[in-house]
Amino acid sequence: MTETYGRLMIDLNGKNLSDEDKFLLSSKHIGGLVLFSRNFDSYDQLNKLVNEIYSIKENIIIAVDQEGGRVQRFEREFTKIPSMHEVSLFAKQNNDLEFIKDLAWLVSSELIATGIDINFAPVLDINRNISRIIGDRSFSNDISVVINNASAYINGMHEAGMKSTGKHFPGHGNVIEDSHIELPIDERRLNDLMSTDIKPYIELKDKLDAIMCAHILFSEVDNKIPSFSNIWINDILRNKINYKGLILSDDLSMQGSGNQSLASKVRVSFDAGCDMVIICNNRIGVKEVIYHLDEIDVEQSEKISEIKSSKKVNWNDLLNDKRALATKEKLKNFKELK
Questions:
Q1: Is 158 tagged catalytic?
Q2: Which of 87, 208, 252, 335 is the most exposed place for a label (fewest CB within 10 A)?
Q3: Which residue, 87, 61, 78, is CA-closest to 162?
Q4: What is the structure's pLDDT at 2?
Q5: Confidence (pLDDT) at 310
Q6: 258 CB-near residues (< 8 Å, 6+ apart)
Q7: What is the pLDDT of residue 1?
């Protein structure tokens, strides 16, 4: 029988579990944890933390944003990852698309070796050199390059045994504002979006295991942001694009998701069709949401189990792996080669 998982993903405050963390993990509604730099000190510490989490709850997804460049939560013993823009330039200049796949394999393998299930990658946003938050997190300003490089990256993730997460649907690259602190508005029509920013999702729909929604108001499509929109999730993503995988909200504590209560946001998001929602940096809000979900008796999900990694990787074996060493050698000379 397929295992069921709670539909909330939350964060942790420190490098080990507090009593409050353990209490929250005991809730049937908590099905995921996202880790940040504040949760990391070393491989041994991280591995101990992950094992402690699993000793409390087996049916849980542990995630991280380990994109590279500005967004890399685990460093020190982990491979230092360039930005995807730099990686894309390197692959083009050296005619080496395999490098992207090998890098994704290495990054994914390191995470799996510590018990991490999923890396929130790749970024599928198109870089138009205006966004305050995307920029070099994007592979390129060329849609075909984004598609081809993201496809190679996903191949590497899959070879390592990790599922992929495309973000930020339907596209964050055409707005200036940072949705962490305000609500960006994109006034383009759906036809324009389908032929531009949504194109990577259309082309990669059968390879993407999860998609994370952006906190952006596309005012010509709907009066709700994608995480709260039946039009975006069901009419467009599920039916028009025919995407079958998991759908995640971005962090509902971000200002771009609005000022209503978190309990209200979560309920609207679930009603719209999100499979799992993320709430970080708001413990009071998380507790209110859990109480609310108990009250309305929200069921757990079997679908979330599909993105859990089932592969085992030994950290010490990975340190001497030929593919890993060859990829690290390229990275060591990365600035010179690119």
A1: no
A2: 335
A3: 61
A4: 72
A5: 85
A6: 183, 225, 265
A7: 54
| Full DSSP string of 21-88 | HHHHHTSTTEEEEEE-GGG-S-HHHHHHHHHHHHHH-SS-EEEE-EEETTEES--TTSPPPPPHHHHH
70: left (phi over 0), alpha (psi -120 to 50) or beta: alpha
∠ at Cα 319 (154, 90), nearest 5°?
Answer: 45
* pLDDT of res. 336: 53
Collapsing DSSP to helix, strand or coil, 132 comes out as: coil
Q: How far, in Å, CA of 296 to CA of 337, rounded? A: 57
Contact status, residue 271 vs residue 247, Cβ threshold 8 Å: no
How far is the first Cα of the chain from the last one, in angstroms, to the nearest whole number?
49
Element (H, E) at 251: strand 246-251
In whole angstroms, give the CA distance from residue 108 to residue 156.
Answer: 8
In terms of C-beta density within 10 A (0-12 exposed, 13-18 middle, 19 or more buried), how is residue 176 classed?
exposed
Q: Is 250 labeled as catalytic in the residue annotation?
A: yes
Average pLDDT by consecutive 10-residue portion of the chain (338 residues)? 88 95 95 97 95 95 95 94 94 92 97 96 91 87 97 98 96 79 89 97 97 95 97 98 96 86 95 96 94 87 91 92 94 65
Q: 184: cis peptide before it, omega within 30°?
A: no
Residues 290-321: tens digit of each pLDDT: 999 988 888 889 999 999 988 889 999 999 99
Backbone angles phi, psi at 10, to 5 degrees: -125, 180
Model pLDDT, residue 337: 47
Q: Which entry of 180, 192, 292, 321 is annotated as an active-site residue?
A: 180
- pLDDT attached to residue 176: 67
**For tokens 């908590």, what's the residue?**
30
Catalytic residue chosen out of the listed positions 102, 125, 250, 251:
250
Q: What is the CA radius of gyration of the chain?
A: 19
